[in-house]
Amino acid sequence: MVDTPLTAPHPWTVRGPGGRRNESIRRHNLATVLRAVHYGREVSRATLTRVTGLNRSTIGDMVAALEEAGLVVVTEPQAERSVGRPSPVICPSSTVCALAINPDIDAVRVALVGLGGEVIASAEQALSSVPSPADALAAAARMASALVAKSGEITLVGAGVAVPGLVDFDGGTVVNAPHLGWRDEAIAAPWSDALGCPVHVGNDATLALLAEVHFGSARGARDVLYLNGSASGIGGAALVGGRLMTGARGHGGEFGHMLVRSGGERCDCGRAGCLETEVNLRRLAGLTGPNRAAELERQAGVLAIAIANLISAFNPQLVVVGGFLAQIFDDHADLVLGAVAGQSLPPLSDGVAIVRAELGDAILALGAAELAFSPLLDDPVPVRA
Q: Is there a smaller number of Cβ atoms within 10 Å at the N or the C end of the chain?
């Protein structure tokens, strides 16, 4: 058993008192413990006592209730890996699952994710053309049905959909996904009807950031910028003081549409010179040798300018890059780091780390699943089946 070093409550967890016995406090305590287990994946009862601020008796009661509800599994630690009196190990139940769906311009991807952020199974359908919402739903429903049928006996709490576009505060309407051509599309209701479970929709970059904060390279950080490069362009998101930066209408973080070149190439958003028109894989198509190397170096320089501007605006502790941006950074780390240091406003850039996303291909599956798990994590009782 690896006792995950949870040194503080999760950024979205509010610490509450543990001695009062009314139902609202009990539900709060259940949620606090379940979140700690979900994000810790494998924790001891002693660790839960330390990180939640609840006493041992309350932790015991909460763990017992969650175990009875089928949300956690309690096991004894291996004696040779323990020092002193062994503390029981609490793990999230792998039979409590969510569907994670990512429709994009080149494929529709579906994963079955267990509580604790375990990707149990996944499937992908490549596309020859950009899908409509109905096309994406049909593909997702087929794959989801097959994954669930093969998974055995599970509790499916819902589905999260990660969309490369703007999503309304209602969590169910895609306001504008320019690369997909989806505008003002109500997704949650028809997809819920087809999938047979609650459906929640979110921006893909925002969900990827949540995944990295919960399970990846940004774990424990409270001020993080995230930039990702994919077939749909460049997405972004920001965590400020432990809270997602949403903006007035929930559309904050569209860093891919920062203007970085006056009079540049026309973007799908309708403007010219956006970051994602200057840094993308399409510009590399057909290039070889010195020409490809020169273009990659140019894109690395533009990426550095964008990061420097964002650092000056947000003063983060960490910048995480994912997708093809991570490869650009890896190949030109010295160039990017030097340019960022030279073009950021000191002391805002002092001590800022730039790292690649850690979760790889699982990042959107874990992020989208968080949408589906969120109601359960907020209120574990009654258990949603």
A: C
